[in-house]
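Shape is hard to put into words, and the shape of a protein is harder than most. The fold becomes a row of whole numbers, each drawn from a learned catalogue of backbone shapes. The outcome of that step, for a single protein, is printed below.
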Amino acid sequence: MCFRCEWLDTTKADYVAYHDTQWGVPLFDDNALFEFLTLESAQAGLSWYTVLKKRDNYRNAFANFDPTVVAQFDEAKALALMEDKGIIRNRLKINAAINNAQCFLAIQKEFGSFANYQWQFVNNKPIVNNINSKADYQATTAESQAFAKDLKKRGFKFLGPTTVYAHMQACGMVNDHHNQCFRKDEVIALYSSLF
């Protein structure tokens, strides 16, 4: 039996699949990055697993996380989303997703891609953290604070330093797998082919 990160509830097969195949893997696809930003902002105040269970519903509700479509959602669409029991029906978070799509597009236009913008906050290379116990995990870092501050300046909502750090973990900007987790070295091996 292989060792996995201690925070993972291994009784939940979908959670294990997410950990084993996605969490911490460097992402450069803008739609995937927009998906994680949207899901992380929806998670604020809730557990990640609560959002993960609703991920497919979010894909349906938010046009497969196409920011060009979401950016055009109007008041009627926002009201319809409030009736969608498959997502978190919080009006502020729904409005934030629409607003963030608009801001996301502005960054794409300025930087060529959101990935170009995002990865600059870690000097375009993942940070590998030394995780030996749950106590070694950080809620925020200087990088997540700088990233969140810049997102806020650019008009993004529901993306403070803690939420942004979770996004950075999910998207592989940081490798926060436990040192004994079988994914730690697998993800590091991915870096060598990407960076």
